[in-house]
């Protein structure tokens, strides 16, 4: 394959990995499974292109042009991104030093994209009209088919040998069975709060509700908490459904806020499925898990499950009126 085509394909695969990587954090239901599969296929397409890229790179390196440092940096960062991706798939370690494997993977991935764009500016690929020909589409299809085949074989091997990789959910997350083993996780850097269950109140509109009152709601939900960090657990949660707390309050959407300032907005229609929980697996929530009150949002990823809830309010903003991912 010509160097130019290799470079164009790598650029396309990297952009696909970026888009599906962001998408992978947003998907919470099996209908979005294809987004996560595509992320793996994009990564494998990058891997599949390395034999050709190393020929291009060897040629380039021998010419001692400007931008060699950038090229080398990009090589290291790409290897790091793929390596942390592999660790996430096989589930070997949850942390690398002070960082979670996912934090490293996302940071390296974003750095990889930035360096790729700089590298492309420095060594522009000249698109030609023939890039849109039938032949190039067949080639691109061939590459994707090869990467897809690789993806299927890896999944089959992981399943067959019963490696931890076989216990993944459609999101790629690994299973945590016991309630004691559920990791205490923050989206970025919220501090664990200690709120006294006897004196803590949640404001629902203009009304103050006690923890005891929420606990007495008697609503029980079996739901899966699936953290974008790469783990999930299915537990029984109890408390009071939001729709019951809201009573006849109306609005387009409902905002659930934490004592830390962390918040998420939900469509009002969903309030009948959202639970304000006081208990997980029959036991009162610990401080780390958002006690005394946390939200349970079935079908949504972990960052929607607001902990240390102190305010619930309805208003007429549409539910999409918020950053797609929390910013703090
Ligand atoms: N207030 C607050 N709630 C939060 C977060 C946070 O950073 N602050 N992190 C969320 C994320 S990313 C996840 S995965 C779950 C983790 O819940 P756990 O610590 O009980 O496992 O809490 C969510 N609720
Ligand atoms: Mo999370």
Structure report:
The chain is α+β, with helices and mostly antiparallel strands and 328 residues long. It folds into two domains: 166 residues; 137 residues, Sulfite Oxidase, Chain A, domain 2. 41% of the residues lie in helices and 19% in strands. Strands 3, 6, 7, 10, 11 and 12 form a six-stranded mixed β-sheet that branches. Strands 5-4-13-8-9 form a five-stranded mixed β-sheet. The chain has a two-stranded antiparallel ribbon with strand order 1-2. Strand 1 and strand 2 form a beta hairpin. Helix 1 packs antiparallel against helix 2, helix 1 runs antiparallel to helix 5 and helix 4 runs antiparallel to helix 5. The radius of gyration is 24 Å and the shape is elongated. It starts with a helix and ends in a 13-residue tail after the last strand. Ligand MTE binds next to loops.
Give a short summary of the structure.
The chain has 328 residues and is α+β, with helices and mostly antiparallel strands. The chain has helices spanning 3-26, 33-48, 50-61, 68-90, 101-122, 134-160, 211-215, 242-246; strands at 95-96, 99-100, 174-175, 201-204, 207-210, 219-227, 231-241, 253-258, 263-267, 275-280, 283-284, 294-296, 309-315.
């Amino acid at each position: 394959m010509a160097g130019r085509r290799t470079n164009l394909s790598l650029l396309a695969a990297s952009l696909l990995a970026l888009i599906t990587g962001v998408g992978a954090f947003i998907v919470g239901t099996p209908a979005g499974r294809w987004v996560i599969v595509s992320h793996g296929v994009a990564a494998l397409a990058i891997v599949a292109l390395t034999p050709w890229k190393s020929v291009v790179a060897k040629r380039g390196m021998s010419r001692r042009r400007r931008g060699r440092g950038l090229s080398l940096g990009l090589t290291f960062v790409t290897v790091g991104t793929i390596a942390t991706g592999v660790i996430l798939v096989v589930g070997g370690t949850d942390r690398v030093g002070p960082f979670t494997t996912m934090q490293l993977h996302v940071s390296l991935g974003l750095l990889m994209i930035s360096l790729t764009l700089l590298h492309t500016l420095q060594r522009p690929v000249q698109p030609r009209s023939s890039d849109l020909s039938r032949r190039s589409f067949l080639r691109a299809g061939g590459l994707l088919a090869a990467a897809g085949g690789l993806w299927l074989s890896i999944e089959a091997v992981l399943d067959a040998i019963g490696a931890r990789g076989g216990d993944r959910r459609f999101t790629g997350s690994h299973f945590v069975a016991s309630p004691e083993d559920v990791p205490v996780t923050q989206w970025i850097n919220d501090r664990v709060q200690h709120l006294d269950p006897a004196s803590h109140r949640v404001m629902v509109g203009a009304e103050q509700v006690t923890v005891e009152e929420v606990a007495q709601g008697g609503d029980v939900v079996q739901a899966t908490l699936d953290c974008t960090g790469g783990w999930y657990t299915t537990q029984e949660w109890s408390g009071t459904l939001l729709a019951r707390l809201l009573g006849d309050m109306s609005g387009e959407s409902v905002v659930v806020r934490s004592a830390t300032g962390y918040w998420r907005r939900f469509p009002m229609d969903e309030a009948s499925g959202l639970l304000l929980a006081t208990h997980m697996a029959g036991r009162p929530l610990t401080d780390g898990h958002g006690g005394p009150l946390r939200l349970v949002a079935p079908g949504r990823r972990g960052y929607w499950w607001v902990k240390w809830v102190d305010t619930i309010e309805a208003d007429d903003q549409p539910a999409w009126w918020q950053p797609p991912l929390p910013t703090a």
